[in-house]
Amino acid sequence: MYYDFDEVDAFTVGAIGQPGARMFFLQARRGATRVTIKCEKQQASAISDYLRRVLNDLPAPTEKPIAAAMELAQPVDAVFVLGPVGLGYDRSNDMVLLQLEEVVEVDEEGEPIEDEDDDRGHLRVFLTRSQAHAFCDHAESVVAAGRPACIWCTRPINPDGHLCVRM
Predict the structure, then answer these.
(1) Given the DSSP bridges, would you call strands 23-30 and 2-5 parallel, antiparallel or unpaired?
(2) CA atoms in the 13 A half-sphere facing the CB of 13
């Protein structure tokens, strides 16, 4: 499975479920084509953080994508689970590049398990600076919408209470 988008209508992140039990997804859309990838909250946050650092060295975008484009399109059917992530900037076309790959199974020693088919999923997507900014803003709000952090230990507080290790 190899998906390649030289441009997209939308690239977004979203979460499904209640805080504490949410599942996170990245989604790229172009016309009727949609690719959804399951990821971890920390992965979505790390992608956003890295994109922010790249974007801070570039001119601010002149347009903003429509907010409705940032919502996950339904149904949300992940084609693979996110593993390695590659990020970069292509100066020739003034676009941000994201390379997302399927997670690799490892053995007890942490070595990748060789698969003779090796049909791991890949998604390569180019984003405009505006789309990258919108992704970062949206990712920060999606991640922050979870459980609040304890002010003493910084661990998430569950709706039914919290046993703080520092209290």
Answers:
(1) unpaired
(2) 28
Give the other-Cβ count within 10 Å of 71's Cβ.
Answer: 12
Instruction: Look up residue 123 and give its DSSP letter.
Output: E
Is the peptide bond prior to 75 cis by the omega test (within 30 degrees of 0)? Answer: yes
Q: Which helix (H) or strand (E) holds 143?
A: helix 129-144
Dump pLDDT digits (tens) for 103-130.
987 778 777 777 656 678 999 999 999 9
Contact 24, 14 (CB under 8 A): yes
Cα atoms in the Cβ-side hemisphere of radius 13 Å centred on 143: 19
- Per-residue model confidence as pLDDT tens digits over 20-63: 889 999 999 999 999 999 999 999 999 999 999 999 988 888 77
